[in-house]
Amino acid sequence: MTRVKVLISGVAGFVGSNVARKFRDFGHDVIGVDDLSSGFSRNVPDGVDFIQGDLSDRSIFSRIPNGCEVILHLAGQSSGEISFDNPVADLHKNTISTLNLIDYGKRNASKKLVLASSMSVYGNTTDAPVSEAHHCHPLSCYGSSKLAAENYLAVFKDELPFVALRMFNVFGPGQDMGNLRQGMLSIYLAQALRTGRVEIKGSLNRFRDFIFIDDVVEVWWAAAFDDRIVNQTLNVGTGVKTTVKNLIDLIKIRLPQISFFVSEGTPGDQAGIVADITVAQTFGLLKQPVSLIHGLDAFLKHSLSTNLEGELAGVHGDQ
What is the pLDDT at residue 77? Predict the structure, then answer.
């Protein structure tokens, strides 16, 4: 494979740092950008040319080298609940940053921009797996800003080819266990390990589609280099429905001493959603995704070997 220069935003985050490591390991030149508002500098892989800054601020582009052939945009605000705190800030983080990267990509004749979009763009759905053709009606400011970013990419697709990856519930070792407002599984696991008492905000009958980080990284790799995947959206999930009760039961089997209680839900929370991954599978992706059981065991093993000191800052988010 030809060595390319890759620009990766959100490189200090959970998914971004794992994606960057894959591209670095295969010999590509990786320029990473992150404002460290939610990521950590320790996550940035060695060998990455790191630039700290906010991509919604155009002045940062004077520090980003020209000539990046592939743009992987994983930066942004990723919590539905937090998006209600400051919708304008959410718009800047998720939509304005994308517009600025589109401008960079056009000026540099980049080959492709891959966007980290979200299942949140769909809003409420039925029990059936949701396909990319499903009508989008987001329930949160976060989902709205991600959908707007997708739409801007579609407007400029003839000048800058794109792929929008609608990621479902990504989890795995290295996820931020201190962020209690984003990531259902990591929130529950953090509480279970720290206090033994898990707060569930909303019904136990809600359901999600949990996908392991290693599978997500492989999809990003393919989206960047597979010429067949262009100017389209892809669901990134497993197609497996897991209710909140199912998830808690799996955790209790592994940590039988824990207890849980149910409280009021959060704004913009989806009642349930699971991915139709037919499109991804036509490209040979997600044929045998890691099961929730195996992924949870790997996540728990890693978490037990990691220092989890510190008080809980509160119990919020997609719980």
Answer: 74
In whole angstroms, what separates CA 265 from the centre of its chain? 22
Distance CA 229, CA 242 (A): 28
Closest CA to 143 of 127, 121, 124: 121
Name beta bridge partners: 159: none
Segment 160-184, tens digit of pLDDT: 999 999 999 999 999 998 888 788 9
Block means of pLDDT (10 residues each) for the chain, length 319 residues? 93 97 97 94 97 96 97 85 81 95 98 97 93 95 95 98 98 90 90 94 95 98 97 98 97 96 87 96 97 97 74 37
262 DSSP β-pair partners: 200
Give the model's pLDDT for residue 312.
Answer: 34
Candidates 77, 78, 79, 81; CA nearest to 266 is 81
Q: How far apart are CA 14 and CA 17, in angstroms?
A: 6
Q: Tell me the residue length of the chain.
A: 319
Domains of the chain: 5-168+212-236 (3.40.50.720), 170-209+239-275+290-304 (3.90.25.10)
Instruction: Let me know the angle formed at the C-alpha of 169 by 163 and 172, rounded to the nearest 5 degrees.
Output: 105
**Are the CB atoms for 274 and 208 separated by under 8 Å?**
yes
